[in-house]
Amino acid sequence: LKMAWFWFYLPLHLLTVSCLCHAIKAPTTSSQQSFKTDLFNFYHSLLLADGKETTVHLLKDIPKRYYFVLEEGRALAPFTITVTPCDVPIEWSILVHKASASFLGKAAQGDEDTQDVSKSQKAPSMMSTIFNFKGNSVETYMGVSPHSALYILEFLSTERDTHITVYLTTDTTSGHLFPELPSDPRIDVIGIGHTTVTLTWKHSPSVLQHKENIQYCLLVNEKHNYKSLCAAETAIRSSGMKLPPTLALSLSPYLLEPQQVMILSNSELSIISKASSGEVRQICMGTKNTYTVSNLSPSTQYYFDVFLVNLLTNASAAYTGTFARTLEEPEPKVMELKDGKVIQVVLDGKKQKFYSLQYQARHKKIQFTFQLCRGQVQVHITKNGKTVASENIPGLKYFSLKGKFLDTYLVQLRSTEESNSSVKIQVSSPSQKPSFPLLPDSLKIKSFSKLRTCNSVTIAWLGTQEESKYCVYKKRIEEDQVWTELRSADRCSGPESRYKSEKVLCKYFYDMNLQRAVTTETIKGLDSGTLYLFDVYLFGPSGIPVRYHSKVVKTRKKC
Predict the structure, then answer these.
(1) Do the first three CATH levels of 178-242+278-330 and 445-554 match, i.e. the same topology?
(2) Are residues 287 and 201 in contact, defined by beta-carbon separation less than 8 angstroms?
(3) Which residues form the Fibronectin type-III domain (predicted)?
(4) pTM
(5) Which one of 134, 340, 401, 469 is separated from 238 by 20 to 30 angstroms, measured CA to CA?
């Protein structure tokens, strides 16, 4: 097709050059330089295809020219030129050769007639500018040529290298390459929530006429609006992301970048991309003209652009973009803590948000107790708005605080890792019997390598000065289960979650001398060369268990 256009226009190109050359055989002195300039511009121009979108690459401060010719016999022929900047503002002009009609019609009559024409034109400017524009918006020029004429389009970028698209058509009867926008191309925001924005826009006449070939695509970003699909794609690529050839996506398979996620649901195709400038979403929703964008961040300004895309040609038209700010996130509900009551809280690691609890003191001296069940948790305590404690919970942690009657304490908890964490909390007064047991200095279980045999293992753990109940459990595991078992262990769960067959024994002990508050136990009847997971549970006065850190030991393979 490109070669056909080339061979079609080549004779006309050569004829036009020839006519121009004949016309300047005997120019007047004052018009000679004008002719030379016009001829230079023509020689350094490229043929602009009719009825096809052309991509033009521009180098900074270097003009680029294209030409087209409206042939004889098409009096009052209409033509349309649409220029779409894909990045920075550009300057572009349309020039027409004033004498092109006379020269194309009279050059063949001979030198004498040509000289008469030159003499009768007293140094005219042979090229006349009929349109110029500067900016980065899509601009369309509609004109009518009263006779055969040579037109030159000149493009210039003064900011940086860029590219544009140019569409010329002289056939205004067979429809448009670009989808048609409605008379009011604005996007209306009809609903704003904490994480959602609902948009609507008027239907395009193209959608009503060619529903199967047209669809709407929405672009959501946190930077600014874009005046064309070409400009949007260029900006997103420059931020480090790679996009499909068009937001229309045509639903054909392609490879996504690692930072991109594609979601296809309910006939909607969404692509979520991560960039330094924030998240960018592309959503193609068919011919629906109302859409709710969800999963947005609270209190964040977003920019919304709707593009009307022709699936057959990939040509597009842009609605007038809009923006909206999501509502601020509501204050989280605060749970009331009650004296002596133990509650367990599960914290979402992905959201990394604080979970709040409030307590109004009934005593001057109070004690907060935190037992870490799973994950990693940070606690922050304020009294009447002032911070009194802030640290990570290692296992079981007590905070003894002094204040006044009816002081207000706010406890805030959050997971410090991406996985969910959980913790038990209790607030009590010194007069209340503690629910949690008195803990030793360490909750580690020790094993003795020299005492290991093929069918037995000896373990030891620390006790306290308070007589308490200790229960030992064992579980046979495989090598590839070790990390999972240790990682997923819930240190707040008691033996009720274990199989009865895993129970080894329960015993009571204490020693007033903490240096001697150590107990050992030899577990027999084990299989040789086998991994075992050992757990010790300590029970307090109220029956709340505390689980020691699990210990993995392997029996000897040969004895």
Answers:
(1) yes
(2) no
(3) 179-316, 437-545
(4) 0.49
(5) 134
